[in-house]
Design a protein that fits this description.
6 helices; alpha+beta; about 210 residues; 9-stranded mixed β-sheet
Length: about 210
Amino acid sequence: MNNKYKLRYISHERPADVLTPVGIYLRIRDIYPGSLLLECADYSSRTNAFSYICLNPVLGIEATENNLRTWFPGDKERKTSNHNIIEKVNDFLGSVEVTEESEKPSGPHGLFGFTSFDSALLFEKYNNKIVKNGIKNREVPLLKYDFYKVVLTFNHFNETLTITEYYNDELPLCESDKIISLLANHNFTSYPFKLEDNEQSLISNDYYK
């Protein structure tokens, strides 16, 4: 994209002493498909004691062994080769511009995802045998990042919850009040779980040793 895709955001901070990331995620996962939960396990640190719940991905980038796909609202999708992937990822990151409406910081902006270990195949040169083994029977992308319209940030040290919503003319401001209402609802859907077969491992105990 030659023109930057511009977004604004607004944040609301609320007390969260009776809330947990898992509890909130259970309430909203059916309402917001594709939700993402990143839970912090260390609550003792003031600087890194944050958990995130990300809702409603609105744009993103995804790399497989064959191509690179970027997508934006309005069914704007583009597929290219994954050559020069570093340059293309940087171009994508530079194509999104976020400005704030509130002075209160909200933590990292709405881009979350992963770069897999095997994505090194896209950044470095390896022989064909290593490449084929790295992508054999692969079911997930090598690299994937999505920008989420709403991010819930739990500050475990201060026990506060910040709701950040990103918006523009194409993506109106409409989710924050709905989420605040959901936080007051302590009911959630539970699903049954059972084993269909005995536990199995892809490697033997001897191989692991």
